[in-house]
Amino acid sequence: MSTQVELEHTESWKLESQYMGYTYDIKVSIPREEAPDNGFPVYYMLDGNSHFQLGRDVVKLQSRNAPKTLIAPAIVIGIGHYGSDDVVSKRRFYDFTPPAKQYVYPDRLKNADIGPHGGAEKFLSFLELELMPLVSEKYNVDQQKQVLFGHSLSGLFVLWTLFTRAELFQYYLASSPSIWWNDHEILAYAEHWCKYGQTISSEKRKLLITVGSEETFMVDDAKGLFSKLCEYSLPDLQVEHYVAPDENHASVVPTIMSRAFRMLNR
């Protein structure tokens, strides 16, 4: 009887952020094999409660045949929240939305208790100054293959990070991003970055915007952002757009995860 060697192992730890005044649930999947000379690529998965296990399994299964799947062994990091669904939902609105002088809410949210918002700058400081240095210290990371993945509100945060601190990651994966937030404010960030932010480095960044075909207005929002970015013929950004057939906001992530991760090696 043969035994199968596990391709990865998972660690779990708590990380208290001084910037956020909050403790995050961090899960890390590390390949068991020896790291390449430059280190392993690393995928930072926002909403780790929901998406870490899926991201881990995509890498674990497909890295067995990397030449065909284009997914190499990699470190996958889930950044999760603690608490009930309602507590986590309110925390997401704070962590993933940019600060603003005033907020405009769509009708579906006008009577909803979504909690405080506008904490994205502090959350980005947590990523840049607390989590990422710790990951680089603990694991063998390829500093030129760092990926940020987010869906919905955390997809909005992925876009905002690109348009404000593009040098932090090389690959940005925004799944069904909440472009609608605060009357489509992220489009102003995009336009400003397109006009004035194209001196980040000699390296090209990559952005993938995905959405499910059944996500109503979000399909048009994603297409509109993609078109705007394409208008500028940006030398520092390769942008792709994918609409997943027959998928809705709840179902789309499992269908696009593999495609999104393959972008790293295309």
What can you tell me about this protein's structure?
The protein is an alpha/beta fold and 266 residues long. The chain is built from nine helices and eight strands. An eight-stranded mixed sheet has the order 1-2-4-3-5-6-7-8, sandwiched between helices. Helix 1 (48-62) packs across helix 9 and helix 5 packs parallel to helix 7. The longest helix is centred in the middle third of the chain and has 19 residues, at 120-138. It is globular. The termini are far apart. GO terms for molecular function: hydrolase activity. Pfam families: Esterase.
Short synopsis of the structure:
With 266 residues, the chain is α/β, with parallel strands linked by helices. The chain is built from nine helices and eight strands.
Which properties best describe this structure?
alpha/beta, disordered N terminus, hydrolase activity, globular, hydrolase, Siderophore_Hydrolase_D, eight-stranded mixed sheet, 266 residues, 39% helix
Mean pLDDT: 93
Secondary-structure class: alpha/beta
Main sheet?
Answer: 8 strands, mixed
Number of helical elements: 9
Order of helices and strands: EEEHHEHHEHEHHEHEH
- Percent in strands: 15-25%
Q: How large, in whole angstroms, is the Cα Rg?
A: 18 Å
Describe the strand arrangement of the main beta sheet, using strand numbers. 1-2-4-3-5-6-7-8
- CA-to-CA gap between the ends? 38 Å
Helix fraction by DSSP (H/I, runs of at least 4): 25-40%
How many DSSP-defined strands?
A: 8
Indicate the overall shape: globular
Low-confidence stretches: 1-5
EC number: 3.1.-.-
Protein name: Ferri-bacillibactin esterase BesA
Family: Belongs to the esterase D family.
InterPro entries: AB_hydrolase_fold (IPR029058), Esterase-like (IPR000801), Siderophore_Hydrolase_D (IPR052558)
